[in-house]
Each structure stands twice: as structure tokens, then as C-alpha cells.
Amino acid sequence: MNTPFSIIIADDHSMFLDGLTSILAEEPSINIVLTAKTGTQVLKYLRINTEEKIDLVITDINMPEMDGVELNAAIKEEFPKIKTLVVSMLEDAKKIKTLTEANANGYISKNAEKTELLKAIKSILDGQNYFSPRIKQVLMEAMFSEKSEPEIALSKRETEVLKLIAQEFTTQEIADQLFLSKHTIESYRKNLISKLGVRNLAGLTRYAVEKGMLD
Amino acid sequence: MNTPFSIIIADDHSMFLDGLTSILAEEPSINIVLTAKTGTQVLKYLRINTEEKIDLVITDINMPEMDGVELNAAIKEEFPKIKTLVVSMLEDAKKIKTLTEANANGYISKNAEKTELLKAIKSILDGQNYFSPRIKQVLMEAMFSEKSEPEIALSKRETEVLKLIAQEFTTQEIADQLFLSKHTIESYRKNLISKLGVRNLAGLTRYAVEKGMLD
DNA sequence: TAATTTATCACGGTTTTCCGTGAAAACAAA
DNA sequence: TTTGTTTTCACGGAAAACCGTGATAAATTA
Q1: How far is CA B200 from each of CA A126, B16, B134, B208, rounded to the nearest angstrom?
Q2: Do A15 and B13 touch (CB under 8 A)?
Q3: Range with the lowest mean pLDDT among A94-98, A210-214, B21-25?
Q4: Which residues from chain B sit within 8 angstroms of residue A110, using beta carbons?
Q5: Burial letters for B168-195: b for 16+ Cβ neighbours within 10 Å, e otherwise?
Q6: For A9, A160, A213, B29, which has the most beta carbons within 10 A of its beta carbon?
Q7: pTM
Q8: CA-to-CA distance for B170 and B116, rounded, in angstroms?
Q9: How far is the CA of B119 from the C1' of C15 (A)?
Q10: How far apart are CA A194 and CA A200, in angstroms?
């Protein structure tokens, strides 16, 4: 029998962390060296224990302080030999794309079965990447839908003005706040309306709220 | 030693379900008789296996088909002897309140530690309800904040008009659609603005979007 | 360097919203 | 049955938003 693989698990939900640990503790070939609730904890550990050979880091995406996307990037930057497997609640195409670009070795959903989790871990430890069929599909769909919805790019100022508009400030008030002419703000308003393809203030506000630009 | 307690676990995320099962499988006093991904599965099982004595159902809130809130209500209705423990990602005051009103026996967050989970289970099987300090706090805050924010009640027509306003229709257009005078719609607009405590169309739109009145 | 985008400003005219101040009829609740 | 709420309608004036049609300078990008 070979020496077991050393892995680290990061997830901010204790119960999920404990659950995952329980599942993997049953595997004789796996040795859990650390469980953490934030990405920073993981990084700190890796930086201190540089002599210890870690094979795999399993991480959630949504975590406080440093999320899974950032953690993955940091690991690939500082410790390129360590493999990463992202386990997430959401099937967010953009995040998955970012992760693939940052060379994450795998991505599975929390909807995935235990057997799929083990399969993913085995594949990755074996040197292969693992992205579940479901995830591949989401990625593909994102590729195509991306073209149909061409991602409207707003400049810094436009974003700033839009936020204020959606916060119920009038053109004059925004002009005063930003020390600009009210004509300028009117221009932005017009551009935003045509850029975003909406009809009026209501449309602008909806856009801002739905894109999570407020708060 | 007494006979072990029989419990059912419901959660739509396989991995969490497996994790929880792993954790509880280590407990000799606990016997997991079923794991399910929807509330309907649980109910179906209970209705068929009426002779089997089930002590506790552990359920997530967010599930397809029948969520945890509905499942809890149904269990308390049909099988009042069965205890329920809700385990959820979110600390949503309203849902917690609904659950307490529907006599759920416990509520803990997925952020809770394994020890707290076990404590909650033991308490409930012992005949006591368990709501974590964190949850109690959220509930209290909700009670108070509820008074400061007195739940604005909109009439049917007001809701209808607000939706259309937020969908970028002008007063005249709305009047035409509803076969009403434009003065009427203007009245609604004014009332909505003062009722909701906002300043203008942007505020109305934000309210509508944030309350999920569209789509 | 040339071309493009971004940020800024201007004006007149039209439409829409906003505000105050009503009021009448229908309906529900106390 | 009186009181309150909802739904409906009206007018005039002020304020703001919307539309078209510009322009200049700075910053970025190709």
C-alpha cells in the first residue's frame, strides 16, 4: 500500500465541513491534514508548513475573507504542485470559467453524489482534471448565451452615476454631489438609457438593482 | 442500552446529506432509516410505513417540490408525535418565525458545529426544543425590527399599478391598459410614493424589484 | 501616432412625473 | 350603521426627466 494522500478541506459551513471530513475519513488512502473555514487559514498553513507535502485542497466557493476562487488562484500561484478541487452550491458559469482559467483541477456541485466526489478526487490525485458532465454543460451554455447577451460595459463614471440615479437622487443632486454640471449628468442618463436598452428611470433602477450594484 | 432512535434526514444536496449521514452513523444511539432529497419523499415514506416508529426528521429548508417549511407543517399535521429539526443555510427570521409557529422542535444553522448538531438532536429526542442562541437572537431582532418597519400593506390595485410602473410603463400607458383615467393612475403613484416612503420612480422600482414583485 | 472611448458641458423643447388639494362611490369592518 | 379602506376621478402648477443635436478635451487603445 502506498502512503496516503494528504488533503486539506476548506468550507465555511461547519456542518458541511464535518460531513465531508466524515466521508473522507472512511477512505484509507486519504489523510486529512487540515480543515479550515476560510481561504486565508489554508494559505497560512501552507506557507508555514512548506516542508509538508500536500496533494489536494478541496474548497468551497463562498467563504468569508478569501473565497474559493481567490484561494485557488493563490494556491496555483504559490504552490503550483498542489491540486485543487472546488465544491460549490452554485453552478455559476462565470465562476466556473474563471476557475478553469485559473487552472483549478476540478469542479463539482454539492448536488453531486458521494461516489462522484470520490471519483473526482481519485481522478485529480491520479493527474487528471475532473469537471462533471453537468458542469461542462453549464459551461457550454454560458459560452453560447454569452454571445446573445453581449455584456454591456459601463465606464466608471457611468456606473457611479447609475448607482446614484437608482438611489433616488435627482439629476441636480447628483451634479452637486459629483461637482459636475447637471448637463453632464443628463448626458450620462441619456447614454445609460440607450446603452442599457431601457425606457426610463424605472428601467435604469431595475438594471442597477438586478445587477446588485447597490449596497 | 435502550433501543436506538430512528431518524430521517432530508436535504437536496447529496453531499450534505451524505456528510450528515456519515456524522450521525457514528452515533450508536441513532439509527438512520431514510435519507431523502425532497419533502414529498419523506411524507410518502411516513404514510406507507405507518407502523414504524420514527422519532425525528431532520430537514433542510431549501428543497425542490416541498420545502422544509411545508414538510414540517405536514408532519406536525399528520404525525404530531414525530419531532422535527430544521437545518438551514440561511438565518431568515421570517422562515424561522413560521417554523416556530408551526411547532418545529428545533432550528440550527449549517454554520453550527457538529457538537451543536448533536446537542440539538439529543435535546429534542429528550423532549426539549432546541433553538441555537444565534437563532434566538435573529428572532428577537426580527420581532423588534418588525415594529420599526410595519410591513406596508398594498391593495390589489396598488400592487398591480406598482408592477406596471416598475416595468417602465408611463402613467398614460398604464391607464390605457387598465381602462382607467390617467388621473387615477397618478393618484396611485402618489399614494405609493408616500406609503412606501420613497422619493420617486426609482424608489418605487427598487421596492418592486427587491420585494420580488416582477417576473 | 491615429483612432476610439471617456468625461465633460450646453440648450431648447416636449413629455412625464411629482405635489397639493380635493371628492365621490363602493365595499368591508366594527 | 357609522367608520375606514379601496377604487375611482379631476385640475393646475412646479419640477424633473426625456429627446435631439451638438461640442471639446483628456485618456486609452490600437
Answers
A1: 60, 45, 38, 13
A2: no
A3: A94-98
A4: 13-16
A5: bbebeebbeeeeeeeeebeebbeebbeb
A6: A9
A7: 0.65
A8: 54
A9: 65
A10: 10
